[in-house]
TrEMBL record:
Pfam families: Jacalin. This is Jacalin-type lectin domain-containing protein. Belongs to the jacalin lectin family. InterPro entries: Jacalin-like_lectin_dom, Jacalin-like_lectin_dom_plant, Jacalin-like_lectin_dom_sf. The keyword rRNA processing does not apply. It comes from Microthlaspi erraticum. Residues 5-153, 162-303, 334-477 form the Jacalin-type lectin domain. GO terms for molecular function: carbohydrate binding. Signal peptide: none annotated. Keywords: Lectin. The keyword Nucleotide-binding does not apply. SMART domains: Jacalin.
Length: 480
């Protein structure tokens, strides 16, 4: 029987590198190091399901770390208290104290600089009604910049574990929770000139579609449709802020990224950023807070399903030998190693900008061989890298005028490469808010069309070597 794990957002600063230990059966020991101003080092001894002990450590050792041992398996950590603050010579906040409490009522010493137990900085507490802490995550470099925890929740009837990532954003509004479903099929997003005001999710649950609305709908919605079940949401990057003339801190932007490499941005990237993501997992539900807008957002994650293995075709039995003499059986050949999944072309990505100003396209006798984009960033222009190879046919240009932008629409033709599951792009056509480009390349092969309504293109990514094999775009909601 699987479990659900509650992942609480880290407290502390935004410096250092992110790390995540995930979850274990329990914690056996904790080691903490410090200097005169901060926590510089943590080390955790975890116990896996099979009893194996693994260690994870972060930061730097400046003094001998102090140990806090538990009577595992009869004792576990239930509370972590601490503080974070800016200290001399460092630009960002770091963890300045830590205290651990256990299921047997035991409390660790106050780790970190303190005078008679008094610490400086903003205090925090991780606690959930006596539930067991089974993992840690955070940020670190030369010190411990931030720390978060995993709590084990109730057992599930499913065979796969679930992760419930804490809703982040504002603290006001009504709590809503859609729970975990089989997957997400469609999102509808409403916004005004400063906030995400509405979210509507269409889920797949038990073979049926269920729709859950949140916030205030407004007049116009953007729609983000997934190719369910082959495509799923890998992560949501969001910002939150307290816009002028509004009472609450709310979600101001959302960036959705899918397993097929699609990315779309809605709203305005203003305020503090957070990311809802769990490695090797997919989003299967959302929760948060709502009022006149979306105040906070969290998500449920489930493992990415593995495809069912294809059973080999039965081998017909050999006919009986003509001779009655026994024939010794030949030894069975060793099974062949599975063939690696083939990949064609080198991946490239031009990042995400405010828009596109110019497209350069190179052709060869069978299709598109070269692409280069010039992007708009603020009041300036950024020239992207060239992808593919320029041939003797040279390069054609498609330049956008002032006030013109690329719609999130891409069409053209592609042709399969013989004896492979891959294709290469034969031709491309782009669409703006004012016109369509010519068809660059040939009108032959299989036609394709990609489109996101009410979106404009803000970046491209794909695969290429001497030709262009694949092209996708990132987009965001059109601000009018």
């Amino acid at each position: 029987m699987a479990r659900m794990y509650q992942k609480l957002a880290p407290c502390g600063g935004e410096g250092g590198r992110e790390w995540d230990d995930d979850v274990y059966e329990g914690v056996k020991k904790v080691y903490v190091g410090q200097d005169l101003t901060r926590i510089t080092f943590v080390k955790f001894e975890y116990v896996k399901e099979d009893g194996q002990v693994v260690t994870r450590e972060y930061g730097t050792i400046t003094q001998n770390p102090k140990e806090f041992a538990l009577e595992y398996p009869d004792e576990h950590i239930t509370v972590v208290e601490g503080s974070y603050n800016k200290v001399a010579m460092y630009a960002t906040e770091v963890i300045t104290s830590l205290v651990f409490k256990t299921s047997k009522g035991k409390t660790s010493p106050t780790f970190g600089p303190n005078l008679f137990g008094v610490v400086n900085g903003t205090k925090f507490v991780f606690e959930d009604e006596g539930k067991k802490i089974v993992g840690f995550h955070g940020r670190s470099d030369k010190a411990i910049d931030a720390l978060g925890v995993y709590f084990v929740q109730d057992s599930l009837t499913t065979s796969s574990p679930l992760y419930k990532l804490e809703a982040r954003g504002g603290t006001e509004g009504r709590v809503w929770d859609d729970g975990a479903c089989n997957g997400v099929k469609t999102l509808r997003i409403g916004q005004d000139d400063s906030r995400i005001t509405y979210l509507e999710f269409e889920y797949e649950k038990g073979g049926k579609s269920e729709t859950r609305p949140h916030g205030v709908k407004g007049e116009k919605l953007s729609e983000f449709v997934l190719d369910f079940p082959e495509e799923y949401i890998k992560s949501v990057e969001a910002t939150y802020d307290k816009p002028s003339f509004f009472r609450n801190t709310v979600i101001t932007s959302l960036k959705l990224e899918t397993s097929k490499g699609r990315a779309s941005i809605f709203g305005y990237e203003v305020g503090k950023k957070f990311v809802l993501k769990q490695n090797d997992h997919r989003i299967v539900g959302f929760h948060g807070k709502e009022g006149e807008a979306i105040d906070a957002l969290g998500a449920y994650f489930a493992p990415v399903p593995t495809p069912d293995p294809v059973a080999p075709a039965p081998v017909p039995a050999d006919p009986a030998p003509a001779s009655p003499a026994p024939v010794p059986a030949a030894p069975a050949p060793a099974p062949a190693a599975p063939a690696p999944t083939p990949v064609i072309g080198d991946p490239w990505s031009d990042d995400i900008y405010d828009g596109v100003k110019k497209i350069q396209i190179g052709l060869y006798d069978e299709g598109v061989s070269f692409l280069k984009f010039e992007y708009i960033k603020g009041n300036g222009l950024v020239s992207g890298d060239g992808h593919g190879k320029i041939t003797s046919l040279g390069v054609e240009e498609f330049v956008l005028e002032d006030g013109e932008y690329l719609m999130a629409s891409l069409e053209g033709y592609y042709k399969l490469i013989p004896n492979t599951p891959f294709g290469k792009i034969v031709s491309l056509r782009f669409k703006t808010n004012k016109r369509e480009s010519p068809l660059f390349g040939k009108e032959s092969g299989e036609k394709f069309s990609l489109e996101q309504k009410d979106q404009k293109i803000t970046g491209f990514h794909g695969r290429a070597t001497d030709v262009i094999y694949d092209l996708m775009f990132s987009s965001r909601h059109i601000s009018i």
